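Narrative of accomplishments. A recurring question from our advisory board has been how the design workflow behaves on a single, concrete structure rather than in aggregate. To address it, we present the structure tokens for one chain from the evaluation set, followed by the sequence designed for it. No filtering or post-editing was applied between the two.
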């Protein structure tokens, strides 16, 4: 199972032309997201610890004029309940027109086919908990292109950057690195060639997130989880543990020949507590 199951992407090609700022351009009609999730790998010879990819999936949302908002707060700000990993395209989701089968994508020497999970929502769980030690940039260094997706054919998500390491000052006698509700946590990282960073604090039970707060770190290399963050969560929720996602993303908006605005996102997300269900 992938982190999406646990509840927890370059230049325009083909049919695409022009670029628009996420902040200042028209509202998107669709969204292509390529996600790689990382964990701590260790070189058996040098004992060096680094970020390797344990899961990789691609999602596509198509909801003309009604795409669900996924705008991060301003740098240093936090939002409660922001849907970073959707499971549908919202009430306005529509199936892509002009397709006789599910849409497909390519990146580097990999390719895949989406599965339709609902009106306007397509997902391909490319790698599911493989726990590889491949680098995010190695996995998505060429970006990701829709090569058979009706009006979205040619839309391309940007290349991934690199994640060297992510660290917290959590001290846990059990060695499971789990966060205690209300504790101050300093998070630092070394990552390059990403537009911005964000963190999501997740109250999880039975593989689902029952409460989340997403905070934007902008182009910084650290973030401190304080009472201002915890005040947005409910300590009384019956959850098994608190997880932490530290995400890095490159994003843009592209326009197709038909005038559709498509948000394209490539993300590398470090997961503090990696569990398999």
């Amino acid at each position: 199972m992938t982190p999406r199951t646990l509840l927890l992407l370059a230049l325009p090609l083909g049919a695409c032309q022009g670029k628009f700022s996420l902040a200042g351009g028209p509202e998107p009609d669709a969204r292509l997201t390529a996600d790689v999730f990382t964990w701590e790998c260790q070189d058996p010879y040098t004992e060096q610890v680094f970020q390797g990819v344990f899961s990789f999936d691609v999602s596509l949302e198509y909801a003309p004029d009604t795409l669900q908002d996924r705008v991060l707060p301003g740098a240093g700000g936090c939002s409660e309940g922001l849907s970073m990993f959707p499971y549908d395209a919202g009430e306005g989701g529509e199936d892509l027109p002009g397709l006789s089968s599910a849409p497909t994508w390519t990146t580097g020497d990999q390719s895949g086919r989406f599965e339709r999970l609902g009106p306007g929502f397509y997902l391909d769980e490319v790698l599911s908990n493989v726990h590889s030690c491949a680098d995010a940039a190695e996995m998505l260094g060429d970006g990701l292109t829709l090569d058979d997706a009706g009006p979205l054919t040619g839309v391309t998500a940007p290349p991934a950057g690199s994640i060297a390491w992510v660290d917290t000052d959590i001290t846990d006698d059990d060695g499971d690195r789990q966060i205690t509700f209300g504790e101050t946590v300093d998070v630092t990282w070394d990552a390059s060639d990403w537009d911005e960073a964000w963190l999501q604090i997740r109250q999880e039970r039975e593989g689902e997130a029952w409460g989340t707060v997403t905070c934007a770190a902008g182009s910084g290399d650290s973030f401190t989880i304080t009472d201002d963050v915890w005040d947005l969560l409910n300590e009384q929720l019956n959850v098994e543990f608190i997880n932490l996602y530290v995400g890095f993303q490159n994003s843009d908006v592209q326009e197709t020949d038909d005038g559709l605005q498509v948000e394209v996102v490539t993300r590398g997300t470090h997961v503090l507590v990696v569990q398999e269900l």
